Fold L-proline glycine betaine binding ABC transporter protein ProX.
Amino acid sequence: MKLRYAALLLVSGFAQAEDSCGSVTIADMNWSSATVIANVDKFILEHGYGCDAELVPGDTMPTTVSMMEKGEPDIAPELWTNSAKETLERGVAEKRLRFAGKSLSDGGEEGFWVPQYLVDQYPEIATIEGVKKHSKLFVHPESKELSGFYGCPAGWNCQISANNLFNALELEQSGFELIDPGSGAGLSGSIAKAYAREQGWFGYYWAPTAVLGKYKMVKVDTGNGIDEQEFLTCTTQEDCENPKVTMYPPSAVHSVTTEDFASKAPAAYEYITKRSFTNAQMNELLAWMEDNQADGDAAMYHYLSENPESWKAWVPEDVAAKVSKALASM
């Protein structure tokens, strides 16, 4: 009898150890989409899985190196993994890190865009040939004789690819001049101004962003698909002499955890593997944050309260019930 009781205690102990979550550190990156996801993870891990979760400041390279060398933080909810690809792959090979799934299911999205209201009037403007045909709709802010294409701000990495694709698409020959908006605020402001006046706008932008959540834009199809090799070896290189046309490939955006966290808290780790946002969801959430001057914690509460059908798909029913109870008590 004593032997059987001891065996039951041993099995129970193993079960508790397997389900134990304990202290968990989560990287709170310094951009809006990442801080939203970090706050969502903190709330769900705390109230759904019993973790003692803490947010710690983070950024792509410092967080990646710290996870590799120190084993902390436990979770990086949103890493644009192409920026640290070699380090991350080495971490996985050495069983220090795990890719836990895609935090943005669509990946980071870049492209050349036009307003939805223009496409409604002229459906062919959704293609680059249609943009060229209707180039006069995209009035240059400083010249009535030219059409305007808003590029990426000077000094940003995307300026190289935007400029190379401007040349590859032969937009200058179609009457366009490349405009440097001066800053991210200048670029987003030009879209807001065009929208307020329902004028033409054509240029570079990316997602997820509050801007594409507030202003409905259509990504222009260049008709050539994605040539990833061309993009990596020429489009993104400053010394690319003969750029060819390609669409922007999506940027991989993953959640990454330490191997220790994944091993000690398999149930919590499984949640991280399932938690993912589409760009449309995140665009809308970021727009809400901007309109309401909300921080990550407020955005977390807004998202979880307003979208139960979305986040409940990430967790078992008993966990969803605990999280719902915690939300109701706030």
Observations:
- DSSP finds 16 helices and eleven strands in the chain.
